[in-house]
# Entry
Amino acid sequence: MIKRTKRWPRGPERSKSNLIRLGLTSGDPAGIGPEVLLKALACEKKLPTAAYLIFGPEEIIRREIKALKLKINLLSFSHWEDMSQPGFYLFSTDDGPLSIKKGEPSAEAGQISFKSFARAIEMASQGYLEAVVTAPVSKLSWSLAGLPWRGHTEYLEGIYPEAIMAFWSQKIRVALFSHHVSLKQAMEKVKKASLLEFFLRLENSVRPLARNKIEFLVAGLNPHASEEGLLGEEEKKEIIPAIQEAQKRGLNFSGPYPPDTIFRMALEKKGCWVVALYHDQGLIAFKLMSFEKGVNVTLGLPFIRTSPDHGTAFDIATKRIASEQSMLAAINLAYKMARRSGPPALHLSP
# Structure
């Protein structure tokens, strides 16, 4: 695991042509990660002009290219100066012969996907990459490999406590107050101080990426946002006071709104963010509206990180029928955010 320092050493500055450097991880080799990544790269006309650095085992990458009958020109990479021109570069993480079986989680697959991910994050943290796009990993494979993290975001939170799991599409944007915890644990987290701290981090993370002032709609925890306390007390005791305090600080947060109508409000307003208080409250609606073109975004990092809004799909990994649309969306969004973002934002404490 990378240990965070007060200030990361910076990598080489962008070239005079302002070429964006994107890291791409291949994900769990037993799932659809390598497939959707390479299918996306084969759609060159749909990709922005950039220097792409692929992290993963060369054996698996080349095998997948052959199986999918794709034409991708992989360029050799030995030093960062090699990436002075647009193209697809390969950073091989091979450790020798591999025994991965498609469609089956394993400790070996977990170690492979983690190694490529951790290496890409290290390089981005040091300033060598403006953004990282991660193919899906398996929580089970990571667990079998003895890794303590449940996924990408949890690993990043260990390095950058300001990290926020969010989801982005042309239709709607969602930020999760809590994510991979039980519903009981998520409810226990709904406290004024924690909510206010989250609101401040969220606004501070989104601000550098937005052209206009952003509006945040906060969902209630209980049905109908508690109906003035008739269906629960969290809104009155915790959520409303946190929103009011954020408003006093000049932040554009409002609510809490009934969870069953908040997404319709967001669609009508366009460009606003929904703050969901737990995982499924936000993602059921998001995936219903934007499943193939939605993007997972980690906010609050000193670099851009995006990922397709789907998992490893072990059940179809051997069929090679996976859609690359979400991966294309993740790559294009990472590029746009990297172009738009400035220096890393400072953390605002409550």
Observations:
- The chain has a mean pLDDT of 88.
- The radius of gyration is 20 Å.
- Residues 107-125 form the longest helix (19 residues).
- DSSP finds eleven helices and twelve strands in the chain.
